Write a sequence for this structure.
């Protein structure tokens, strides 16, 4: 079953990918793909976005590091609780269909970045932690930190070769990768 609130974005910004296999033995290949997906997600988090040269995660702004330290939080990018990394799942929907993605609604914000309008409540929190914002500061920027895109790019490169090798072993019809 697809998670209650899955993040599914069109092909331009996939945060989830449906993978269809047209064969009675596609399960084996999809299981391998799911395991590889989770391995690559772990690597991406362990390396701070270094899976591909274009996916390096921007460092936290110095003010963000100080702000987090004032609240007793870790200053590593996307590693504070481990929840974001653990939110990535492989869910079997049928023998020939798996879902790859994150169950965390914040994943799309971190993947693509976001501008946030500063509210009076936010000003109060920043001020209480010793970081009063200028009146002219009306927006805050969270830069994109690609977690899923480099992993899906890597899977797209790796798995056609794996599929061909496995198809020869298992002697079955081709498997098709289809973005939602």
């Amino acid at each position: 079953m697809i998670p209650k609130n899955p993040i599914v974005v069109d092909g331009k910004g996939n945060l989830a990918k449906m993978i269809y296999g047209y064969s009675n033995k596609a399960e084996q290949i999809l299981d391998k793909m799911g395991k590889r997906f989770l391995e690559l997600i772990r690597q991406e988090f362990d390396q701070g976005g270094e899976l591909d040269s274009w996916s390096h995660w921007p460092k936290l702004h110095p003010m963000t590091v100080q702000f987090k330290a004032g609240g007793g939080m870790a200053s590593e990018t996307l590693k504070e609780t481990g929840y974001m990394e653990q939110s990535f799942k492989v869910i079997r929907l049928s023998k020939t269909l798996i879902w790859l993605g994150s169950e965390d609604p914040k994943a799309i914000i971190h993947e693509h970045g976001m501008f946030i309008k500063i509210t009076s409540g936010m000003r109060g929190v920043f001020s209480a932690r010793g970081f009063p914002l200028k009146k002219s500061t009306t927006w805050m920027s969270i830069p994109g930190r690609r977690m899923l895109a480099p992993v899906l790019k890597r899977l797209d490169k790796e798995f056609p070769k794996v599929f061909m090798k496995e198809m020869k072993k298992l002697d079955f019809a081709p498997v098709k990768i289809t973005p939602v």
